[in-house]
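Data card: per-record layout.
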Amino acid sequence: LVKVEITRSQAKTIVREAVVSARTAPVRSVRIRAQTSGRINEIVAQRGTFIEEGAVIARLALDERQAQLRQAKAVLQQRSLQYKAAERLHKEDYMTEVELAQSRANLEIAQAEVDRISKDISHTIFRAPFSGVLDQRPVEVGDYVKVGDEIGYVIEQNPFIVRGSVSEDEVTQLKIGQAGSATLINDEVRNGKLRYISGEADEQTRTYQVELEIPNPQGRLIAGTSAKLRLPLEEVSAHELEPAVLTLNKDGEFGIKSVDKNHRVRFHKADIVNNDAGKVWLSGLPPTLDVITVGQGFVSAGDEVTITRNTQEKTAASARNE
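The structure for this 322-residue chain is written out next.
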């Protein structure tokens, strides 16, 4: 008979996880673009620095805008006086309703012009829409910008997100707000909460995008770095075994081999629940098994074998007896 080595394995209850490759990304980022044209007159914020919400990044030269505003305000004052006079004349029947309406229209046109110029002046100052890092600032003093030109790129630093994709059988077991963790490129583990689950699969990969929100109070994380995303799915009964015990049966099915009480080989189909730190967790197996750890490649289901127990297991058993 073929001699095999066995190890007694007892199932444990563990949490099955979705473990996927992911990348870090900011929760918010925005490209600030010019809403009016002009020459850059002042640079206030430098690239790579942290800026508060509302902080000034750069300013355009006002040029003739101030003069235009003074002129528009003078016209507005004139139109206002004219309209008040028109109202008095209308009450005394010296002015028709049409003439009064025309005077009101002139007043509103003058007010609209003041508002337009004032808004244009406010657009000459570029401010941060939220607190974050000014990652890019492609303009310098003296540059001429047109409407739509980029002035700066601001990235919010806290919190951050880790974005990955899960399979269709995993996405049904996830929910917004549940806990998760991300292992960063430096092996640091950050805990967070699931903030987004895609409602539609990617047409090519048939996977669903998910986002885990993690704290970044020191602002040390940067966007685009690799990470490993772990999301708990469900509790399952599984065995912790060495990857070397995995094998295939004659039908190509994946599983492990064990020995029953009659010293005959049995094959068990199994599913990998987790694979971490050189160990695999297998589900779909009986609660207790004598797993063949040496010699499984030389026997088939139904073969009678001679067994010897794992040295470590025998040592542990001796220690318990003592």
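Known properties of this structure: The chain has four helices and 22 strands. The first strand starts at residue 2 and ends at 10.

See the next section for split statistics.
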